[in-house]
Fold these 2 entries.
Entry 1:
Amino acid sequence: GFSSISGIPGVRERTLIAVKPDGVQRHLVGQIMQRFELKGFQLVGLKMLQAPEELLSQHYQDLRRKPFYPSLLQYMTSGPIVVMVWEGHNVVRTSRIMVGDTNPAEAQAGTIRGDFSIHISRNVIHASDSVEGAKREIQLWFHGKELIDWTCCNHSSIYQV
Ligand code: IDP
Ligand code: MG
């Protein structure tokens, strides 16, 4: 039942994943989502939008003083993005491993950036880098009502219950 599932430490951890404009243009949304689905993580929020600059400036608040910041905002507003919330045990840390190094030249083959991108300025995907960061980013991009609490019928095949 629900209570035994919520009893597994960290099973309800959530992270923010976004397919950036280059990923959408290159029709990578399905392949990227499939990697998270096949891993066993659970989708709890999903939307496509043209990101407002104000939202992006909050999302990337820590990078405001970086030399690449203006071109980063230009890139991120160049077309629609797909923003998602994925849930599961250790999802923040595991997603970062699935996504790979920020610089695709350093990203391992088999990671999303390693397999689908070449240059740091067009690295197809965003993933939150900490549990605290994920909470902040999820609140920024989603209203509470847009996030769906649900339990996968395969739960006991993915976790020991
Ligand atoms: P992350 O996306 O792996 O967490 P961050 O350091 O948080 O990496 O940087 C956010 C995004 O800013 C990167 O994904 C990339 O799109 C862009 N970025 C970071 N460093 C550079 C750079 O040196 N040149 C151009 N773009 C960069
Ligand atoms: Mg980051």
Entry 2:
Amino acid sequence: MSATAPISPTVAEAPARALVEIRRVRKSFGAHEVLRDVSLAVPEGTVTVLLGPSGSGKSTLLRCINHLETIDGGRIIVDGELIGYRQAGHNIHEMTPKQIARQRRAIGMVFQRFNLFPHLTALENITEAPIGIGGVPRARARARANELLDRVGLAAFAGHYPAQLSGGQQQRVAIARALAMDPKLMLFDEPTSALDPELVGDVLDVMRELARDGMTMIVVTHEIGFARGVADQVVFMDGGVVVEAGRPEDVLDHPQRQRTRNFLESVR
Ligand code: ADP
Ligand code: MG
């Protein structure tokens, strides 16, 4: 086995079908190969935590799943649908723009920066896409937004503008906004790393509850406690490859690779 071969690229005992299958994905920016032969499977209803040092390709991988980047090789299959890829400069099995738009609507994404519209209230931020893109009638979208605000602990803040909310509250609105499109998959890219430490817990609690409700999630985070408590699978990436993957108790407590051990020591 080569030094970079993953110990266990998939969750061996997972009974659920894979909602996301990533097979031998490659992605370069110019001459820089950012993803080199990445494979992983995310069973439906499970949580995968992606760990790795800055620059290891975590955000790029999430962005490829969500069609924000195209891949140069390999396959990404989301809910049975192949995402297009390029080989030798040709698009292969490219989904039509309509299919891509439909699939992107089914994938919620939450970024490090909350990206709320500053001129819209919390409620309006949440109803914007369902009304504008989803064609949901205004009254129904508003009722659902209020439910979602309640779910993220912000029932009393519907009329607040982002500037009137703390970073943690804004991030919870961003999660509610993503949920408003009824996604089948949620991608989180370091959702708490821009927050003051005292605000992190509430956001993680919302994510924990989502996981408990059976949402399929891929979460890039350095919150090891969250990974330990919530993840079904922990994937450690470095230098564009999956170095090690498996159950949290294995990867976090008994890492097999020196690179994983070094990283875990640096974030603890
Ligand atoms: P991570 O999220 O693990 O920190 P990223 O996926 O953001 O890593 O980045 C991986 C590497 O790809 C970094 O070296 C970064 O500079 C590079 N990269 C990311 N996006 C682009 C881009 N659009 N153009 C050029 N290089 C990029
Ligand atoms: Mg990143």
